[in-house]
């Protein structure tokens, strides 16, 4: 057997023999990564993070690798960070702001953080992306190296790197084994496997970033990041154009379109609601409340409009009014996870632990009803934290854990 073929065979034996479960290497605790053992998640949590955890994270476009791989890793990483208790800047908004900034300012973390209204920036590069096929053995791999930086002073808060891989095939010991190995190796090279590997990569790295905050959700109609969509022409429906501009991160453009529509059609609740949302995103909260009130006055049975009213009141420190609006939203739509969750955060802030626990439980059930396992998991984590404060929440926790156990994916250890 040639040296090259022997090397490939050795790599296959190592890959197929014992790397299904990743190992986590915390360099901050003095642990050292192996140079030969595969499937390591290597990370460092710096003291600057512990001293002052970020309240917001803006995930920049990733450098290196095929553009489609970089885009996919970024979208999936955003989705896995979303359930954590800190605000994320929508990817489209990050891209819009980057495109509008002069090139010199894009690399100035202070100016970039100010433009995004976010105190931390997550950047990185693709280190591996692709697949290898050796007949009886195949490997699909995606790797990334990331760094979380505080925008104001450039301090590194967290670093992480990982290569997630899927291995197919087997070491052939007979003619039948060769045929079986070739089939398994070929099956491993599907698009589904690429997506699964990307998900493993993002989930594992996201799990090493501590989730230390408990924060309200900030947009009643927020969705998972999507591919960029074309903005309808000016001749198209004005609201559709405004929503498309908002989805692309152009909040000022969306606000202008919504204001124009509301001026021409004062009875359009949807235009008032969009105005309110964009004003909040542009950090103009006092101006947002009248728009939200008008939306609710025009369509009081719409849970999303009531969510918006609750959110602007919470931002303004009017907790009682916020809770009242969220209660009306839940009456309008019992599966409104946004209202349940934000109510729980506000109640907990008021020292009302038992009502807060009931609201977190309601949030988990609501998100499960909408098949949002990520947010259900976030509500479950908060419920467990309250269970550690002397509340008897065993039944509620078991109910959510059992329901989440039916979802596919790698379970946390």
From TrEMBL:
- Residues spanning the signal sequence: 1-20
Q: Which SUPFAM superfamilies match?
A: TPR-like
| Family matches, as InterPro entries | TPR-like_helical_dom_sf, TPR_rpt
Classification via SMART domains: TPR (SM00028)
One of the Pfam families matching this protein, by short name:
TPR_19
Q: What are the entry keywords?
A: Signal
Q: Can you name this protein?
A: Uncharacterized protein
* Species annotation: Paramagnetospirillum magneticum (strain ATCC 700264 / AMB-1) (Magnetospirillum magneticum)
Q: What is the lineage of its organism?
A: Bacteria, Pseudomonadati, Pseudomonadota, Alphaproteobacteria, Rhodospirillales
């Amino acid at each position: 057997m040639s040296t090259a073929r022997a090397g490939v065979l050795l790599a296959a034996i190592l890959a197929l023999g014992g790397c299904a479960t990743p190992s986590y290497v915390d360099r901050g605790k003095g642990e050292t990564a192996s140079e030969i053992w595969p499937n390591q998640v290597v990370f460092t949590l710096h003291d600057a993070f512990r001293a002052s955890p970020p309240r917001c994270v803006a995930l920049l476009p990733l450098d290196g690798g095929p553009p489609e791989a970089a885009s996919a890793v970024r979208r999936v990483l955003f989705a896995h960070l979303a359930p954590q208790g800190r605000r994320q800047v929508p990817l489209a908004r990050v891209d819009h702001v980057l495109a509008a900034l002069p090139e010199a300012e894009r690399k100035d973390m202070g100016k970039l953080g100010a433009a995004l209204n976010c105190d931390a920036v997550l950047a990185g590069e693709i280190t591996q992306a692709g697949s290898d096929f050796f007949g009886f053995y195949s490997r699909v791999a995606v790797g990334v190296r990331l760094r979380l930086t505080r925008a104001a002073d450039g301090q590194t808060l967290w670093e992480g790197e990982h290569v997630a891989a899927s291995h197919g095939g087997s070491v052939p010991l007979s003619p039948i084994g060769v045929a079986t190995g070739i089939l398994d190796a070929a099956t491993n090279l599907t698009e589904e496997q690429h997506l699964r590997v990307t998900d493993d990569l993002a989930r594992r790295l996201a799990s090493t970033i501590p989730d230390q905050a408990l924060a309200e959700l900030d947009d009643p109609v927020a969705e998972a990041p999507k591919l960029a969509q074309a903005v309808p022409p000016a001749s198209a429906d004005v609201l559709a154009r405004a929503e498309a501009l908002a989805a692309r991160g152009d909040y000022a453009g969306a606000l202008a379109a919504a204001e124009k529509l509301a001026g021409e059609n004062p009875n359009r609740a949807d235009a008032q609601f969009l105005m309110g949302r964009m004003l909040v995103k542009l950090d103009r909260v006092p101006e947002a409340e009248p728009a939200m009130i008008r939306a609710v006055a025009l369509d009081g049975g719409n849970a999303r409009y009531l969510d918006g009213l609750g959110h602007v009141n919470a931002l303004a420190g009017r907790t009682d009014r916020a809770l009242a609006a969220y209660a009306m939203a839940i009456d309008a739509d019992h599966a409104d996870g946004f209202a349940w969750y934000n109510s729980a955060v506000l109640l907990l802030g008021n020292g009302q632990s038992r009502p807060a626990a009931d609201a977190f439980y309601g949030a988990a059930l609501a998100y499960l009803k909408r098949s949002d396992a990520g947010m259900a998991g976030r509500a479950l984590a908060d419920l467990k934290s309250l269970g550690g404060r002397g509340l008897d929440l065993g039944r509620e926790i078991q109910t959510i854990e059992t329901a989440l156990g039916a979802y596919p994916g790698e379970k946390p250890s």
